[in-house]
Design goal:
nine-stranded mixed sheet; single chain; about 25% strand; 7 helices; about 250 residues; two-stranded antiparallel ribbon; alpha/beta
Length: about 250
């Protein structure tokens, strides 16, 4: 844990020195990141590697299938060498900086690059699932191109916890990229999550994920994620009291 930080990573297992890719799945617009990374973690049968705890997180208890579990978790596997970051709660604005510092100080030694996911409101049904990328290094920019991912045009801003993580990776020389996904801005969007897995994450991270159930169970997934979506909307409404910046993704 960094000095004066209220957030820390509690490690359960030893991963060794194999280089890994961290895929971030924290709740954001359309819950695309959360839905996509849930599916990746399940499909790859990743094991829980550790927990992120913070005095700044809401005082709640998360559970799944009748069993209590940690709200913010890190999963990992050996083949493919992937780590995932997941949360059952929206990250409050007050804890964004400490969470980012924790990941860079306590966890960054265990991954060689990070892939973040950010939502952007789709203006039409046809736009849902469109993906563009932004990279922090020449090598990752080339990797995005090799994976067939279009680089974002013009200028813009990535906000929220994803923006903080991306900025800290950039300044700490940790290779990172963000995939900006067009999604439904009002409800959890399994279709956009399926698109970002198939069109971007699979070729970029070299994984093979079965996404069919994201379509078959779309209504059930939306119901499961609705509570998180409502909490996230409350945080966003608090932030919206200040003028929104154009080109902001989160």
């Amino acid at each position: 844990m960094t000095p004066d930080s209220s957030t820390s990573f509690e490690k359960n297992t030893d991963l060794g020195t194999k280089p890994r890719t961290l895929i971030e799945g924290l709740p954001g617009l359309g819950l695309v990141a959360a839905i996509a990374v849930d599916q990746i973690t399940k499909q790859l049968e990743l094991d829980q590697h550790g927990t992120i705890v913070s005095d700044d997180f809401p005082s709640v208890t998360a559970f799944d299938e009748g069993r209590v579990r940690d709200a913010v978790r890190v999963y990992a596997g050996g083949d493919p060498a992937v780590m995932t970051l997941q949360s059952d709660i929206p990250i409050p604005p007050s804890s964004v900086d400490s969470l980012s510092q924790c990941i860079l100080s306590d966890l960054a030694a265990e991954f060689e690059r990070a892939i973040f996911l950010a939502g952007a409101p789709a203006e039409s049904e046809d736009e849902i699932g469109e993906v563009v990328g932004v990279a922090t290094t020449d090598d990752l920019e080339a990797a995005l191109a090799d994976a067939g991912i279009t680089l974002a045009d013009g200028s813009g801003v990535v906000g929220g916890v994803t923006g903080a993580l991306l900025a800290d990776c950039y300044h700490d020389d940790v290779p990172a990229a963000v995939l900006i996904v067009r999604s439904n801005p009002y409800i959890p969007d399994p279709a956009a999550a399926r698109a970002v897995i198939e069109e971007a994450l699979e070729p970029l991270v070299e994984v093979d994920i079965d996404t069919q159930e994201l379509l078959e169970q779309a209504e059930e997934i939306q119901k499961q994620k609705q509570q998180i979506a409502e909490q996230l909307q409350q945080y966003q409404q608090q932030q919206d009291q200040e003028p929104a910046m154009p080109g902001m993704y989160q």
